[in-house]
Amino acid sequence: MKIAFQGELGAYSEQALRVYFGTEEEAVPLPHLEDVFEAVESGKVDRCIVPVENSSAGSIYRTYDLLSEHPLNIIGEQYLKINHCLLALPDVSRDQLKKVYSHSQALDQSRAFLSQLTIEEVPFYDTAGSAAWIAQEGNPELAAVASSLAAEHYNLQLMAENIQTYKHNTTRFLVLSKEAVKPQGHCKTSMVFVSKHIPAALYKCLGGFATNNINLSKLESRPTQTGMGRYRFYLDCEGHVDDPALEFALSELEFFTSSLRILGSYPIGYIPE
Q1: Per-residue pLDDT tens digits for 18-70
Q2: Catalytic residue among 171, 189, 193, 256
Q3: Active site includes 171?
Q4: Is the domain 2-82+169-177 a CATH 3.40.190.10 member?
Q5: CATH no., domain 187-267
Q6: Are 164 and 84 in contact (CB under 8 A)?
Q7: Is 184 helix (H, G, I), strand (E, B) or coil?
Q8: Cβ pair 149, 116 in contact under 8 A
């Protein structure tokens, strides 16, 4: 299969792809999240994997917006523990380094370690892209914060590993497909809805989950972009959409919403410690 991801080769999204699908499938790097969604919808690729939230930085809002804009199905999730690494050209020592490049979030997440090096931090558009760039430049004064996979791709020296300040830094990825896939085992269901404009609307929307003893694992709101004060809600809960308890909860939810779409039921991913 062809599996799309956003970023350069060596991105954390590619790393998550390899964990979920293995190494036999073809990884297709694309520059923007929009390109990734469109590639699946158009049939240019079979699947894609996209980041949706990080334990340190929070939700990735563009992914949530694209989930409502494209008719794709969530068929799986993958949690990846983020191991930020300091990369440099081969045979370079730390005292030679003067600048370090990476995505602004990766720099922020590695601030405690980088502050000990007393080198200039320079934001870059992508973690793996920064690794590719310093390999291309060939300047021994430049370093990057990226994945160990990026070090392999671009033949860079792995100067330090696990430099992130919070050692449990984890990103959740969603696996998307044009067609739904029948899941096995303990499942999670994701959905997006817009509540009716009535008093206590959200409270009433969530009531059916409480009365049917369904555990909610995520609730996110995003503007509908149709006017001030209008929001859509993304909800993750335990259970499969065909489970009787969840069917009852959804029938009650539908009564209090102006729109409701099930994004997918899929196996619950393992969260690394």
Answers
A1: 999 999 999 999 999 999 999 999 999 999 999 999 998 899 999 999 999 99
A2: 171
A3: yes
A4: yes
A5: 3.30.70.260
A6: yes
A7: coil
A8: no
